[in-house]
TrEMBL record:
SMART domains: HECTc
Pfam family, one: HECT
Membrane-crossing residue ranges in chain numbering: 653-679
GO process terms (BP): animal organ development; nuclear receptor-mediated steroid hormone signaling pathway; positive regulation of macromolecule metabolic process; protein polyubiquitination; regulation of circadian rhythm; regulation of primary metabolic process; regulation of signal transduction; rhythmic process
Low complexity: compositionally biased ranges: 117-134
Subcellular location: Cytoplasm; Nucleus
Full protein name: Ubiquitin-protein ligase E3A
Skewed-composition ranges (Polar residues): 14-25, 32-42
GO molecular function: ubiquitin protein ligase activity; zinc ion binding
Disordered: annotated segments: 1-42, 115-186, 238-263
The HECT domain, residue ranges: 588-917
Length: 917
């Protein structure tokens, strides 16, 4: 029987020998083998070395984090000495590896937090016989037995502590099995994944890897416990300990008063999970992809049953399963897109709102690098499904569950993308403006007669997204998302959607919630597609107003005008338009929602859209001219801004807002050059410092330099107080104190951020508050019941107002249709496009103005213009003419190209006025 001293000596000898075998110089290899040198294979020796190295590194790790427990320890690499700096777990792990290689000193006493090993010095999984010690010896050696846990994938590693030359053990060994034994049904860990992948690469045997992945991924409860984060003790993560119910809350959040379901931290170690799948990516995918697809499909089916029927799966576990499932590397097979991914999206549809919110938070905080891969995979699924499916009127894309479930799942990614980016405070909101539209007494009757198309009260029928409410997030607060919003557009889907059907589903879903509508997920649709939905909304409103007039006539009441008619003089267009709109706004503001019909006095043109286009262009040119005094032009950005010292009344700015709203409502594009902050403010978000970038780039760069200046002499370098200076319309200097007694308060390192915020707030909000509130009120008088704010972001609203900036006339040529005998092969048509492509940009704008009534490119590009060129007789001296309401160009068949160019240039340069042909 071994004495206690012999056991201690053997234990110390084992540690010393392990340390030496792990060093770069392996000259002591023979001394480590002892009596077993003739029986242990080279492979077993490698395993022993790895286990010993891991054991020592873990001891260094605990020593750096927890210390040895001895007061006033003299080891500088021990936390108990007070000399070692405080390290995070990641830093301690890196430092432990460094200490291992330079064979730094280890304290004799082990930290009491080291996990137990599966085998003790007197027991191993091999057929080893040994003498037993007394109960007292076992009690004395308890601390020695608490060695770090060895790799569970190898039963031979636990024997390394017994093979010492000093011991009198009679050791016999069985031959090592050819296939390793793994714990069946056990959760996956980073270590086990690494070992599985290494064995697969070395032995070319893939069954153990496939079996382990299959057993974990087919069972939600097992997968949810995989890659578990560690128990948190004293605010530090301790590797090697699984989290229990109490430690789970600490792992999720350090705030004990916070609901576990609502916190942002994951229960699992996402970094460990990602590293594990990086190991898996090194293995050729053909070794496991097919089996993993099957396992993911089974996982999704089991989760669907648990979430929808049995309700046994905890929300936290379901979220963990989705996080792990979408960390799986690219499988490189079509089965994943066709089978596994649709099933996962279908299962995610049954996650609670809280579960979806938690998944979005985890992705935003811990999986930023995975967001692009997840998004691209979903986009690929939707695109392949759309282009490979023949949709009909009886089976629309809205009926395709694969596409709809993927779209719903993409919404979680959409919000996670915003959270992962740069977010602003949601307190920077414009004050709400209440529009009291005068209600017609017969409108209630109309609502009963035409319930499907009556849009009254629609602003109350569009509730906020429950997921957005749960996350307390709004798209206006996303200053810069992690991925650009444009990457969420799916053009094949947008081109496939029949918007009339989708819009009908959209209105039905609001009231009944039965139909799927992509308009409820506007992030996936292009601006051109969404603008068509807005067009249907506005047109139905216009037709509804016409029915009101018809109902008045039926009951014998004085019928109101079915249109919003404006009669203006070209020489007094501002006065006539503003007076006419002011009368309408005062008498019955609802008339602003009728279709606009403009008549120029003394001209015969009938307004089917073209006359209105020119009306808007002319009035915009007048109103936004700096000489008019309502707006000023920023010299750096060439944008227009509200004149903070304007003498115009609030009513004038209200009428300008009405004009902008009418342009959107009547689907007319304006030549307005507002900075982006105007559209953000119209949507309800106040301006902030970042908005200065496109409003006044010079000022923005100067203030940014101030914020980044870290010198102690900032006060002397800038010599700036909290008093600022600006000029009125006459060039007079006006001073304003951002704070009380601001001229005596200098900007310093301590208050420079406050100065920048106050300065930005004054320029973008306070200084133009009166003018902008009136302007926004007029805008909302037209658009308050429109889904504009629901469907469009501020950047997209700017595109609705100003159109596209892409003047690609090649697209226009491809989309143009011909009539009256012309074809694309006609010589006159060939000459026409040859002339057009050689024009300057200014002349191209004039051509658009001549043919369509607007020199702006419609949303989606010139391919959406649908120009028609019709033959207008044989060769003659007549100039080309146009029906701007219908985008029709009437072009005589000129004999020569030079004559065509001469007549065309004269037409586009002298093209004001409307007459009957």
């Amino acid at each position: 029987m071994n004495s206690k001293s012999e056991t201690d000596e053997a234990s110390r000898g084992s540690e010393a020998s392990s340390s030496k075998t792990s060093a770069p110089d392996n000259t002591e290899e023979e001394s480590t083998s002892g009596l077993c040198s003739n029986t242990v294979t080279d492979h077993t020796q490698d395993i022993m070395k790895r286990a010993a190295a891991k054991q020592l590194i873990e001891r260094y790790f605990y020593q750096l984090l927890d210390g040895c427990g001895k007061p006033n320890c003299d080891n500088k690499y021990c936390a108990s000495s007070g000399e070692a700096r405080n390290l995070s777990p990641n830093e301690a792990a890196a430092e432990a590896i460094k200490l291992f290689y330079k064979e730094a000193r280890l304290c004799d006493t082990l930290p009491n937090k080291v996990p137990r090993t599966e085998s003790s010095p007197c027991h191993s999984s091999s057929s080893t016989t040994c003498n037993t010690s007394s109960a007292k010896d076992k009690e004395d050696n308890k601390e020695k037995e608490e060695a770090p846990e060895s790799n569970p994938t190898s039963s031979k590693e636990s024997t390394s502590k017994e093979m010492e030359p000093e011991t009198s053990h009679n050791v016999t060994h069985q031959e090592e099995p050819k296939t390793r034994s793994y714990n069946n049904g056990a959760p996956l860990t980073e270590e086990s994944m690494y070992q599985l992948c290494e064995d697969c690469l070395q032995t070319k045997v893939r069954q153990p890897l496939i079996k382990a992945l299959g057993e974990a991924f087919t069972t939600p409860a097992t997968l949810a416990r995989s890659f578990a984060c560690k128990v948190v003790e004293n605010n530090e993560a301790i590797p090697g300990k699984s989290s229990d119910k109490e430690s789970k809350a600490m792992c999720l959040s350090s705030d004990p008063d916070k609901d576990v379901d609502s916190v942002t931290g994951p229960e699992l170690d996402v970094a460990s999970c990602r590293r594990a799948f990086q190991y898996l990516a090194k293995v050729p995918s053909e070794n496991y992809s097919s089996a993993l697809v099957t396992a993911l499909k089974t996982l999704a089916d089991n989760m669907l049953i648990d979430l929808r029927i049995t309700k046994k799966l905890l929300m936290d576990d379901a979220v963990n399963c989705f996080v792990i499932a979408f960390e799986v590397p690219d499988l490189g097979c079509s089965d994943y897109l066709e089978i596994a991914l649709p099933a996962l999206c279908h299962a995610a549809e049954h996650l609670s709102v809280k579960g979806q919110a938690k998944l979005a938070r985890i992705w935003a905080q811990h999986c930023k690098d995975s967001l692009r891969h997840i998004l691209e995979t979903l986009q690929q699924l939707i695109t392949l499904r759309v282009i490979s499916t023949n949709y009909t009127r009886s089976f629309q894309v809205q009926d395709d569950e694969v596409v709809t479930c993927a779209t719903k799942f993409m919404k979680i990614v959409y919000y996670a993308n915003m959270l992962a980016g740069s977010m602003e405070s949601n307190s920077l909101r414009e004050e709400p403006i209440v529009i009291n539209n005068q209600q017609d007494p017969l409108e209630n009757v109309l609502g009963h007669l035409y319930p499907p198309t009556s849009m009254k009260g629609s602003k109350h029928a569009q509730p906020d997204d429950p997921l957005a409410i749960e996350l307390d997030i709004h798209v206006l607060d996303a200053r810069k998302p992690y991925l650009p919003f444009e990457e969420f557009y799916n053009e094949p889907l947008s081109d496939t959607i029949e918007m009339d059907i989708d819009f009908g589903n959209f209105k039905t879903e609001i009231s009944k919630g039965k139909k799927f509508a992509f308009l409820k997920y506007p992030f996936i649709l292009t601006v051109a597609t969404k603008s068509l939905g807005l067009y249907y909304e506005n047109r139905i409103r216009m037709y509804s107003e016409r029915r009101v007039s018809l109902l008045h006539a039926v009951v014998g009441a004085a019928p109101p005008m079915p249109f919003l008619r404006l009669k203006v003089r070209r020489s007094h267009i501002i006065d006539d338009a503003l007076v006419g709109l002011e009368m309408v706004a005062m008498e019955r503001a609802l008339d602003l929602k009728k279709q606009l019909v403009v008549e120029f006095e003394g001209e015969q043109g009938v307004d089917e859209g073209g006359v209105s286009k020119e009306f808007f262009q002319l009035i915009v040119e007048e109103i936004f001219n700096p000489d008019y005094g309502m707006f000023t032009q920023q010299p750096d950005s060439l944008t227009v801004w509200f004149n903070m010292t304007s003498f115009e009344t609030e009513a004038q700015f209200t009428l300008i807002g009405i004009v902008l709203g009418l342009a959107i409502y009547n689907n007319v594009i304006l030549a307005v050059n507002f900075p982006m902050v105007v559209y953000r403010k119209l949507m309800g978000k106040k301006g902030s410092f970042e908005d200065l970038a496109d409003w006044n780039p010079t000022l923005y760069n100067g203030l940014k330099d101030m914020l980044e200046y870290d010198g102690s002499d900032l006060e002397e370098a800038y010599y700036q107080t909290f008093r600022i200076c600006y000029q009125d319309v006459f060039g007079n200097a006006i001073f304003h104190d951002l704070k009380e007694d601001g001229d005596n308060i200098f900007v310093t390192q301590e208050n420079k951020k406050e100065f920048v915020e106050l300065y930005s707030n004054f320029l973008l909000n306070d200084s133009v508050d009166t003018q902008f509130r009136a302007f926004r009120r007029g805008f909302l008088m037209v658009t308050d019941e429109s889904p504009l704010a629901v469907l469009f972001r501020p950047e997209e609203v700017e595109m609705l107002v100003c159109g596209s900036r892409n003047f690609d006339f090649n697209e226009l040529e491809k989309s143009t249709e011909y009539d009256g005998g012309y074809t694309s092969d006609s010589q006159t048509i060939k000459d026409f496009w040859s002339i057009v492509h050689s024009l300057s940009l200014d002349d191209k704008r004039k051509l658009l103005q001549f043919t369509t009534g607007s020199d702006r490119v419609p949303v989606g590009g010139l391919s959406h213009l649908k120009l028609v060129i019709a033959r207008n007789g044989p060769d003659s001296d007549r100039l080309p003419t146009a029906h701007t309401c219908f985008n029709v160009l009437l072009l005589p068949e000129y004999e020569t190209k030079d004559k065509l160019q001469d007549r065309l240039m004269k037409a586009i340069n002298y093209s004001k006025g409307f007459g009957m042909l």
